[in-house]
């Protein structure tokens, strides 16, 4: 079961790797920690800002896990390239934060850089239940 989910996440990451980065305008420039808290159960966050060499993504389980929400996978999209960074099983014992995953996010001087996290939540039978994206952190190193 876990192998099937992991394989599905890898395929998904490969499909997402075709994403292209969008040039950030000054209006959408952001730095520091950004979270999407619109889902009442699972929040997803990204940390990235000018002058750092690594971006960090993590998920926060806002309510205890239920039987219907079981497996999760975290994908980070850094400068348009998707990378699966973590996966696991929600437990009722541990609510937050689920692992922070860090990836290099250096950029060339004076070049726009973007990063975001996407969490994929699966049912206990391995069916994709939903996915949530963090806001996009845009910065220039």
TrEMBL record:
N-terminal signal peptide: 1-29
Q: Which domain of life is it from?
A: Bacteria
The entry's keywords = Signal
**Does the record's keyword annotation contain Signal?**
yes
Name of this chain's protein: Secreted protein
Taxonomic lineage? Bacteria, Bacillati, Actinomycetota, Actinomycetes, Micromonosporales
């Amino acid at each position: 079961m876990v192998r099937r989910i992991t394989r599905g996440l890898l395929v998904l990451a490969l499909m997402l790797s075709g994403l292209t980065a969008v040039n950030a305008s000054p209006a959408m420039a952001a730095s520091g920690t950004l979270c999407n808290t619109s889902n009442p159960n699972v929040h997803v966050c990204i940390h990235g800002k000018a002058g750092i060499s690594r971006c960090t993504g993590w998920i926060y389980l806002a309510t205890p896990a239920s039987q219907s929400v079981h497996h999760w996978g975290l994908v980070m999209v850094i400068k348009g390239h998707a990378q699966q960074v973590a996966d696991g099983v929600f437990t009722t014992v541990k609510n937050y934060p689920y692992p922070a995953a860090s990836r290099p996010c250096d950029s060339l001087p004076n070049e726009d850089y973007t990063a975001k996290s996407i969490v994929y939540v699966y049912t206990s039978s391995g069916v994709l239940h939903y996915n949530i994206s963090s806001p996009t952190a845009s910065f220039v190193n």
